[in-house]
């Protein structure tokens, strides 16, 4: 079971936990106690959990967030979602082959009363926005219930091993996301006016102004005066041939396996999408010892922060802009990926196809708000607020500050005389959610004496911890104090705090004090499980990942202030000292193109739109061409959107088909949402799940 476990990590605690035995299709296996079934199976190199009843296609992990049912298994005779069900000692787990046989029901069901609870505020979602809002409610002594479907608060923060951007004052910039999440969670869990319900799922906001919630498997009804929707976002998906193969899934699922459960789900990864989500997932993969074959982005430039993109390039990951995925190749599981260059109209340019060996394709092509709770609350006439990604897609640093503002708006609803929100807060909020500025050239420093930092920032982004931490006040933000580009001008003691805190690893230190001709360069390094030690020769690169030569390491260690960031020292000629930014760790052969041709028998209509019901793009396109633009009718005819995920994935893909067929948005009739967002056994409503 250790083959697919992460046993060394530069940031995460990999200490061993209690082990238990379980059975998979009669084979006895070992797992970590209480880890999710899906993670236990991946750890044992089992990535196919069954086969679809309609066409026999392989089923496995997809969202790892309980939103779909692709990972369904039979556990102790009951169909469950593998990603949301913990392993227990001697649990008997079986694959789902076709339609599962449901267990025999209770012939004498018990009907009991359901507990009804009232509260001032119901917060749905315990991520960065929800937690920040809760802290404001606690400060003003407003009673609230916070509901989150995981066993740990923090949302996606707890999956982030990198240091955060933003500002130190407003979003804890320079701290690692997982540390921020746990710090905020501790404050909320210790609050006297906040009742935290973990492992609890909000099911629906009903028209009688009540909310159904499954708390630890027990159904309860909550009547709130106000709802604060901080449920976050869900990942968008793509249509392409092979998009339903085992091994195709989103960044959230990947980060859950790697950074929460310490499972190594892949040997060779290819990433589709160059926003921050995809780029950061690539960095997390390298930290977990996974080879990143490449990343492709449809636009001419990556949408993520340039410093994030540059980190990947410098470590040896090629990035293909103006490229898109053509197909995932393999029989049941991914064995390779084919991409191609695209023109300004996003059409494939013939003759530019290239294929790469990989066993996993990570889809990171954007997010959409989980807005259904907001919509249903408005329909029911409940006062509702939304915060974080549930309101507007932005970075987690923005979600925290936005949650703080929204929390105070809720306070003002109950206490109109409470502190007014300063105008400066709204200005900061706008900066924190702003898009990156244009890429600019770096002004070269002429200094060649003493010791000083070289700041390799090409782009204005919301990030200022280097200026905040400088003890000499020698790093200033040019322009806005949060988003301006940092510039060094003044004295430096060589404390290395700016180097260690920089989220983009974009600051180096150059020391001419001992030798002006061959100065020492200090480099930040966060993938220490790929060990670098004294005497090793490393391949140095500049900001764009271009080679500068191979030089021996003088030493590598973390400092007391570096928060596990290692500082690597190397002596180089003075003509390259200020150009050195990092060193490559991934060999070029990892990203070599396949020399044999992959048959491109791609038929556009074969692409799967509805993964739950195995409905293809061709089936939908035929209906649209017949003039059917009512999604309810399309659902009734094709079953698209009728599966367990409730159109959470295919809804966006249906929209793509309508746009491709030039159907105006006002001519489309949206589907009627089912009265529950997550499927629940009927017995839960009869007796509260007791």
Q: Which word captures the global form?
A: globular
Which CATH architecture of the largest domain is right?
A: 3-Layer(bba) Sandwich
Rg from alpha-carbon coordinates? 26 Å
> Which fold name is given in CATH as the topology of the largest domain?
FAD/NAD(P)-binding domain
Key words describing this protein structure:
seven-stranded antiparallel β-sheet, seven-stranded mixed β-sheet, alpha/beta, FAD/NAD(P)-binding domain, Ubiquitin-like (UB roll), 5 domains
Structure, explained:
The protein is of the alpha/beta class. It has five domains: 1-102, Ubiquitin-like (UB roll) (Roll), CATH 3.10.20.440; 115-233 and 369-432, FAD/NAD(P)-binding domain (3-Layer(bba) Sandwich), CATH 3.50.50.60; 241-365, FAD/NAD(P)-binding domain; 451-591, no CATH class; 604-667, Arc Repressor Mutant, subunit A. Strands 9, 10, 11, 12, 13, 14 and 25 form a seven-stranded mixed sheet that branches. A hairpin with a 7-residue loop joins β32 and β33 (566-571). α2 packs parallel to α4 (177-189) and α5 runs parallel beside α6 (276-287). The longest helix has 19 residues, at 396-414. The mean pLDDT is 92.
């Amino acid at each position: 079971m250790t083959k697919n476990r992460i046993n060394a990590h530069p940031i995460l605690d990999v200490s061993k936990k209690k082990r238990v035995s379980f059975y998979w299709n009669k084979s006895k296996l070992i797992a970590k106690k209480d880890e999710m079934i899906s993670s236990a199976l991946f750890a044992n190199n089992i990535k196919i959990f069954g086969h679809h009843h309609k066409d026999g296609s392989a089923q496995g992990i997809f969202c790892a967030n309980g939103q779909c049912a692709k990972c369904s298994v039979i556990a102790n005779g009951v169909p469950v979602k593998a990603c949301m069900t913990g392993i227990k000692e001697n649990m008997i787990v079986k694959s789902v082959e076709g339609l599962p046989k449901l267990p025999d029901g209770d012939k004498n069901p018990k009907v009991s009363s359901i507990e009804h609870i009232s509260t001032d505020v119901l917060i749905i979602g315990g991520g960065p926005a929800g937690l920040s809002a809760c802290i404001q409610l606690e400060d003003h002594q407003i009673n609230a219930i916070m509901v989150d479907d995981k066993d740990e608060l923090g949302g996606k923060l707890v999956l982030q091993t990198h240091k955060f951007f933003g500002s130190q004052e407003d979003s804890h910039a320079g701290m690692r996301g997982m540390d921020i999440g746990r710090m905020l969670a501790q404050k909320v869990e210790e609050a006297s006016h906040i009742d935290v319900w973990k492992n609890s799922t909000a099911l629906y906001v009903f028209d009688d102004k009540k909310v159904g919630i499954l708390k630890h498997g027990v159904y309860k009804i909550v009547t709130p005066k106000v709802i604060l929707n901080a449920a976050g976002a869900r990942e968008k998906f793509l249509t392409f041939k092979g998009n339903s193969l085992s091994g195709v899934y989103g960044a959230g699922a990947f980060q859950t396996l790697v950074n929460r459960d310490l499972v190594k789900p892949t040997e060779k990864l290819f990433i589709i999408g160059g926003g921050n989500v995809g780029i950061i997932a690539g960095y997390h993969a390298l930290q977990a010892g996974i080879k990143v074959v490449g990343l492709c982005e449809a636009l001419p430039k990556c949408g993520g922060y340039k410093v994030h993109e540059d980190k990947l390039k410098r470590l040896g990951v090629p990035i293909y802009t103006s490229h898109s995925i053509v197909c995932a190749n393999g029989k049941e599981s991914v064995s390779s990926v084919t991409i191609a260059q695209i023109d300004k109209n996003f059409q494939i340019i013939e003759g530019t196809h290239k294929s790469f060996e990989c066993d996993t394709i990570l889809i990171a092509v954007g997010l959409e708000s989980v807005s259904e709770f907001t919509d249903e609350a408005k329909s029911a006439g409940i006062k509702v607020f939304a915060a974080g990604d549930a309101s507007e897609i932005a970075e987690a640093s923005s979600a925290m500050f936005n949650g703080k503002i929204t929390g105070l708006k809720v306070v003002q609803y109950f206490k109109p005389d409470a502190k007014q929100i300063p105008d400066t807060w709204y200005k900061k909020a706008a900066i924190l959610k702003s898009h990156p500025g244009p890429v600019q050239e770096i002004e070269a420093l002429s200094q060649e004496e003493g010791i000083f930092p070289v700041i390799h920032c090409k782009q204005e982004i919301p990030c200022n911890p280097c200026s905040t931490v400088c003890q000499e006040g020698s790093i200033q933000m040019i322009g806005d104090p949060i988003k301006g580009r940092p510039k060094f001008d003044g004295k430096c003691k060589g404390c290395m705090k700016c180097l260690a805190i920089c989220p983009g690893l974009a600051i180096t230190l150059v020391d001419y004090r001992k030798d002006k001709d061959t100065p020492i360069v200090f480099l930040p390094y966060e993938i220490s499980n790929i060990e670098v030690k004294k005497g090793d020769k490393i391949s140095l690169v500049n900001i764009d990942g271009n080679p500068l030569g191979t030089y021996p390491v003088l030493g590598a260690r973390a400092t007391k202030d570096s928060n596990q960031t290692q500082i690597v020292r190397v002596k180089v000629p003075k003509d390259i000292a200020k150009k050195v930014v990092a060193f490559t760790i991934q060999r070029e052969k990892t990203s070599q193109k396949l020399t044999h041709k992959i048959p491109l028998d791609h038929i556009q209509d074969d692409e799967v739109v509805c993964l739950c019901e195995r409905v293809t793009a061709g089936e939908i396109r035929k209906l649209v061409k017949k003039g059917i633009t009512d999604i309810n009718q399309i659902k009734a005819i094709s079953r698209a959107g009728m599966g367990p995920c409730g159109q959470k994935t295919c809804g966006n893909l249906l929209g793509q088909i309508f746009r491709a067929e030039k159907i105006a948005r006002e001519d489309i009739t949206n589907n009627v949402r089912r009265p529950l967002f997550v499927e629940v056994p009927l017995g839960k409503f009869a007796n509260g799940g007791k």
